[in-house]
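Explain this record to help learners:
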Amino acid sequence: MIKKFLHKNGLIIDLVLLACFVAFLAFWGQRFPVMFFGMITVAFIVLRRIDYQKHVILKRIILTGFGVVAVSFVIIEALVFTQLGANDPEEADYVIILGSGIRGTELSLTLKQRLDASLDYIRSHPQTPVIVSGGQGPGESIPEALAMKNYLIEQGINPAQVIMEDRSTSTQENLAFSKKNHS
């Protein structure tokens, strides 16, 4: 049933996926989730066109590849989640909070969760400087760093404890500019 639907409406689905990718790219730029969606779209379009009756070995390779990726993803996510409760007894020199997008001046859910996750540590270590890192991208009225600083101040964090790095546009720049300006 699904196979028949995909065969009958495949071109429409391909065009809708490509239109979504272009819209995401225009709105959010070349961020990881957008590029990941683009890779999934291309993979869907290509894999849907392969005649697996003729190419049995190719089908097995593709299915094995998807299996390896799925198992790897589950293992990596399990390792990440098992470390969520880990408490490092060492004192940090800095706390760096990386941006994760805002809409206008409103924090994205991911960014708010990052900030909320850091609040306990920041409150219990008022002498530790906090670097909020993130520039201004498309659809953002202010730099992410300013939105993050404002949120932390609203949560009772001393403004003098928060240092803004507001030039970065990628994770690599977040870390490089944070290190360069505050080491």
The mean pLDDT is 84. The longest strand covers residues 95-98. The CA atoms of residues 107 and 113 lie 9 Å apart. Residues 2-28 form the longest helix (27 residues).
